[in-house]
Amino acid sequence: MLNKNIETFIGCEAEYKEADIVLYGVPFDGTTSFRPGTRFGPKAIRSESFGLETYSPYQDKDLMDLSVFDSGDLELCFGNAERVLADIEERAAKVLEDGKLPFMIGGEHLVTLGAVRAAAKKHPGLHIIHFDAHTDLREEYLGEKLSHASVIRRCHDILGDGRIHQFGIRSGDRSEFEWSAEGHVSTNKFNFNGLEETVALIGDQPVYLTVDLDVLDPSVFPGTGTPEAGGVTFPELLDAILMVCNGSNIVGCDVNELSPTYDPSGVSTATACKVVRELLLALKK
Known about the structure:
Layout: E1 21-26, H1 41-48, E2 55-56, E3 61-62, E4 68-73, H2 81-97, E5 101-106, H3 111-122, E6 127-131, H4 151-159, E7 164-169, H5 174-184, E8 186-189, H6 195-202, E9 206-212, H7 234-247, E10 249-256, H8 267-283
Parallel strand pairs: 1-4, 1-5, 5-10, 6-7, 6-9, 7-8, 9-10
Antiparallel strand pairs: 2-3
Helix pairs in contact: 1-8, 2-3, 3-4, 6-7, 7-8
């Protein structure tokens, strides 16, 4: 039995036993290659969530009608990425074993690998739908295979060809795009074109949804470690989230890469909170 966090995301105050969804934060940015700070993301999202309403006019749903348990942040060993991933996998595996949906708040994007390891063991036919500005498909970054720049490549090591579907991509090394084009990964550049067809193709197979918030344009979301011009708008991201959640068998998800200190206005944190709220609500069919 996990203990409830003292400060929860707004409206997420169910007991573990009764919850359908379990939130957990992963304050880790140990492999960040440009601007660190995502370790502060989970706490900022929880704290600032109380600036939101629990009700969403987009979906006509309310967090008060859901059963969500917020287990707080993992206590992590900085300096050892593999131990961090093992801790994440252990938490996600526990939640999955108890028949609940794990919802992770990062943190840098490498944290997704730990959750995917757990989900793939529970659901052997797992697919990943990945929203991001970056391919994250490097074989290694500066000699390190466990990096936020190689997280999706490490996920491919587990899942193999044809089961990773990327959208919003607008940055990466040439070799990453070439490797993807060989048929290993489906990389859809710049927007969400083709998402509806992908959701239909996957059908009822299990899906892990990972949302790197830098898929948003920096004019909307400047508070991130590696901002990339040319991103999507918040309404476009929301429509994409609803399309995936309404048409897919989601078995796990995450929202990551908020670095709140790079946006003193607080707009990026407020946007991240809204993405988390809308994704929570969309998961409830």
